[in-house]
Specification:
about 50% helix; 6-stranded mixed sheet; elongated; Conserved Hypothetical Protein Ylqf, Chain: A, domain 2; two-stranded antiparallel sheet; 3 domains; Rossmann fold; single chain
Length: about 325
């Protein structure tokens, strides 16, 4: 499957965020605790450069508890201020004020030295569609201050909200980014409902979910549907056979008693999103920590290569032919 969804209103929302970022002291980004890496918009890192950063691992109640703290530690090691929250129940929401204060300590101290006291921190809250921003705000404020919905894209324009005498919040529409370099990211976003279901083939999506569950949570399909799972299920054909079993068990049948895997696929996705399969995390910090280390090492090698290449011409004196030759080699090193 190919995943991409970037409607025009998202591009407009991004421009609005760029225009308002100069007013902001801290950027609060909500990510989905089930897929913290994939639900973190890489464009925000560019947008919020030089701003204090807070990450809220929302819907932590829906994720595997074994990995919530690991993800918190992962982002804190990268310099973010992090909190685990369940916006629906309000769990963890009260501590967000404390986390924001810590993130803005330097700004508050600068204001104090200038004689500016009790000026509210201005925060921009950002996140992908359907990550729960509006629900979080309502929970934080204690009343329905923003419109909420279970479909991506409910918040259409910017809204300034006075959360308390200490924080003013600029709410923004949920936005994705123009292109997913890794289609596995698009798959995970589709599974949690951040991509419009109307543009997806939900049966194909369900087949991919079967493969993920078989790999990371092999027991949940047997527990939920009472079906037998083969020891090896590593392709779409094998996943399709599992969907057939689910269809039969749940009476998802078409005329003639044949298994309706389309209905079974919708059922499986709904069960996953509704936590009827249990609390499931679809990506793990250890995997990305290894990738981060690899990227850092590659960047260091590239910088060393460039420094070495830049040093070479300085060792050559008054020999234009040699300089031309060396420059060609330097370009080749740089391109690599």
């Amino acid at each position: 499957m190919h995943f991409q969804w970037y409607p025009g209103h998202m591009a407009k929302a991004k421009r609005m965020m760029q225009e308002n970022i100069k007013l902001i002291d801290v950027v609060i980004e909500l990510v989905d605790a089930r897929i913290p890496y994939s639900s973190k918009n890489p464009d925000i890192d560019t947008l919020a450069k030089n701003k204090s950063r807070v990450i809220l691992l929302n819907k932590c109640d829906m994720a595997d508890q074994r990995y919530n703290k690991a993800w918190k530690d992962y982002f804190e090691e990268k310099g973010y201020f992090v909190a685990l929250v369940n916006s629906k129940s309000g769990a963890g929401v009260k501590q967000v004020q404390e986390v924001v204060n810590k993130a803005c300590e330097a700004k508050i101290e600068r204001d104090r030295r200038k004689g500016i006291l009790n000026r509210p921190v201005r925060a921009m809250i950002v996140g992908i569609p359907n990550v729960g921003k509006s629900t979080f705000i309502n929970s934080f404020v204690g009343k329905a201050s923003t419109k909420t919905g279970n479909k991506p894209g409910v918040t259409k324009g910017k809204q300034w909200i006075r959360l308390s005498k200490f924080i003013e919040l600029l709410d923004t529409p949920g936005i994705l980014w123009p292109k997913f370099e890794d289609q596995a990211v698009g798959l995970r976003l589709a599974l949690i409902g951040s991509i419009n279901d109307n543009i997806l083939n939900t049966t194909d999506l369900a087949l991919e979910l079967v493969l993920l569950l078989k790999k990371h949570y092999p027991e949940v399909l047997t527990t939920r549907y009472g079906i037998e799972i083969p020891d090896v299920v590593d392709n779409l054909l094998g996943a399709s056979k599992i969907l057939e079993q689910i269809a039969i068990k749940r009476s998802c049948l078409i005329k003639g008693g044949e298994a309706d895997i389309d209905r079974a696929g919708n059922l499986l996705i709904d069960d996953f999103r509704g936590t009827k399969l249990g609390f499931i995390t679809l990506e793990f910090p250890s995997s990305f920590a290894k990738e981060d280390k690899k990227n850092i090492e590659n960047e260091a090698k590239a910088k060393d290569s460039i420094k070495s290449s830049e040093a070479e011409p300085q060792m050559i004196e008054n020999t234009s032919d040699i300089i031309t030759s060396e420059a060609t080699e330097i370009d080749e090193v740089y391109v690599d």
